[in-house]
Amino acid sequence: MMETKNLKIMKTNVSTMKKSTLWMAFAAFILSPLAVTGQQTLREKILNEGIQKSVFEKKFHWGVAFHLYWSGIEGEQVASTYFFKPSLGGSLRAEYYLNSFLGVGVGAGYQQRGAGINNVDVTGGAFAHPWITNDAGTVGDPDSTYLERLRFNTLEFPVTLLLRTPKDVFSGMRITGAVGPTFIHNMSTNLTMQSIVDGFHPYNWVTDNYIRNEFGLQASLGVDIDSGGGKSICQIQFVYTSGSKNIYKNGVATGKHTTYGVRIAWLF
């Protein structure tokens, strides 16, 4: 009896071991593809992280820009003898590329405009005379020393069509250009004579003599440089903007705003 009982127990254990082995084989068959897939995914992830993607593959960029322009007033019958003066500005910019070479750009920022006024020399000498005080109380020579300024403080909102070379012209560098309208709002206009003696420039607000709003045309050409290891762009462009309307409100003269210079932007 004992031998028969032991034999039954052994048969039961063998049967249980067979079932366990079958279940383990089945589980290994099911899970092995998942393990291989996981290993491939991890391997591909490591390889992808090692490959630096081009920043130009990103469709949307935004950032800030600094403007170093020269501004002037040009026309057939301007009110004074003008010369181009330095004018600074800054803006927020955003660009969206539909494909590798075509996109749309928008901006919003502050820009100085206006011109310097060259007067006739009536005191002798083309240098400043700190001992001279004119009828307006300005210290220094107010004549041909290029000290008088007509300054416009404006906001501008360009909307441009962007063009960019689909491939690098040099490693990490592509040529870009843009053209489109820009809305210009004149916040204030100041006619002043710079005081080289004490640095306190008199202010004469003449905003009401000039138009407040107009549309202009803006065009630019330059380069986009991958400056952040595939994460950011340094954009350097030559920018030209021309107004479309006569700036003089009273109509006694004819002139339009003109600015040109370099815009440096950092886009992310």
Protein structure class: alpha+beta
Please give the CATH class of the largest domain. Mainly Beta
Strand content: over 45%
Question: From the coordinates shown, what is the CATH architecture of the largest domain?
Answer: Beta Barrel
What value does the average pLDDT take? 82
Question: What does the radius of gyration come to?
Answer: 36 Å
CATH topology group of the largest domain: Porin
Secondary-structure element string? HEEEEEEEEEE
Count of beta strands? 10
Helix proportion range: 10-25%
Number of helices: 1
Please indicate the count of domains.
Answer: 2
Question: How would the global form be characterised?
Answer: elongated
Q: Which residues sit in consecutive blocks of at least 5 with pLDDT less than 50?
A: none
Q: What's the main sheet like?
A: 8 strands, antiparallel, barrel
Distance between the termini: 86 Å
- Provide the spatial order of strands within the biggest beta sheet: 1-3-4-5-6-8-9-10
Describe this structure in words.
This protein is an alpha+beta fold and 268 residues long. The chain has two domains: 1-51; 55-267, Porin (Beta Barrel). It has one helix and ten strands; from the N terminus they run αββββββββββ. It has one helix at residues 2-50; strands spanning 60-77, 82-83, 85-97, 102-117, 148-164, 173-193, 204-205, 213-226, 233-243, 254-267. The chain has an eight-stranded antiparallel beta barrel. The longest helix is centred in the first third of the chain and has 49 residues, at 2-50. The protein starts with a helix and ends with a strand.
